[in-house]
C-alpha cells in the first residue's frame, strides 16, 4: 500500500472516530452505567393466621390480581357478619327513637298552639259577653257560661304547658339515647372497617404479572404479622441508568431512548423518571426483548436522543 493510501485510510478512520464521537456526544446522551431491573416484591403477612390455601408453587407464572395464598377466614367472616347485624339493629333503634322524638316535638307544638287558640277565643267571647251584658243584650246565664269557658281554657292551657315541660324532659332522655346509639354506630362502623381490612389482609394476590420466586409457607402453617409469605419477580423490567450531572440536566421525561441489549440487539424506550439527587434516570422499554428472559442486573448500553 502506498504512503498516499495509508494517509487517506488514516484520515478516513479519524473522520469516522470524530463522526461517532459527535454522534454519541452531541446527538445522544449515552452511558454504560445502566442495568436491567425487575420489580422484586417480598409479600409479608399483615395479620396473624393459619395458611388455609396455597394456589402456586415455586416458579409458577401468575397474572396481576391472581390469588396466591390465603389465611383462614371463617372466624373473621363470622365476626364481620355479627358486627353488620349489630349495626343494622343499632341503626333501626336510632331511626325508631328519632321518629319518637319528632312525634313528641310535633305533638307538643300542636297541643300548645291548640290550647293557645282556644284560650284566645274564650277570652274574646268573654269580652264580648261582658260588654253585651252591660248593654243588656245577653243574659246573666250567657255571661256565666262565657266566664266558665274562659276558666276551662285557662286551666287547659296551664295543663298543656305542664305537659310541655314533661315533653321536654322526655325529649332530653331520648336525645341522650340517640347520642348513645350514634356512638355505638360509630364504634360498630369502625369495627366493620377493621374486620373488612383484616379480611382483605388474609388474601395475598399478585401485585403484577410475574413468576413466583420462592414460597416461604406451608399449608396449615401458623404465620405471624411481618412473616414473609412469598417472593414474586415481575415479567417486565425497567432500566436504571446513571448519567453525569452535566448530561442529566438536559434529559427530560418521555425522551426517546435506545437500549442496547447486546451489540447486535437494540430496543426502544422512553425516560420515565429522573432523580436529580442521585443522577439516576429510570427508563421504561416500549417493547420487550423476545429472546431468553434477561437477567436481573444485566448491564446494558443506553443512548438518549437529544431534543
Please characterize this protein's 3D structure.
The chain has 307 residues and is α+β, with helices and mostly antiparallel strands. The protein has a 6-stranded antiparallel β-barrel with strand order 1-8-11-10-9-12. Strands 5-4-2-7 form a 4-stranded antiparallel beta sheet. The protein has 2 domains: 144 residues, Beta Barrel (OB fold (Dihydrolipoamide Acetyltransferase, E2P)); 128 residues, Orthogonal Bundle (Helix Hairpins), CATH 1.10.287. Helix content is 50%, strand content 28%. Strand 9 and strand 10 form a beta hairpin. It is elongated, with a radius of gyration of 43 Å.
Terminal-residue CA separation: 44 Å
Q: What is the molecular shape?
A: elongated
N-to-C SSE string, H for helix and E for strand? HEEEEHHEEEEHEEEE
| Structural class computed from helices and strand pairing | alpha+beta
The CATH architecture term of the largest domain is Beta Barrel
CATH homologous superfamily label of the largest domain: RNA polymerase II/Efflux pump adaptor protein, barrel-sandwich hybrid domain
Question: What is the beta-strand fraction?
Answer: 25-35%
Q: What is the CA-atom radius of gyration, in angstroms?
A: 43 Å
Given this structure, which CATH class of the largest domain is correct? Mainly Beta
Helix content class: 40-55%
Number of helices: 4
Widest beta sheet: strand line-up? 1-8-11-10-9-12
Largest sheet: 6 strands, antiparallel, barrel
Q: How many β-strands, per DSSP?
A: 12
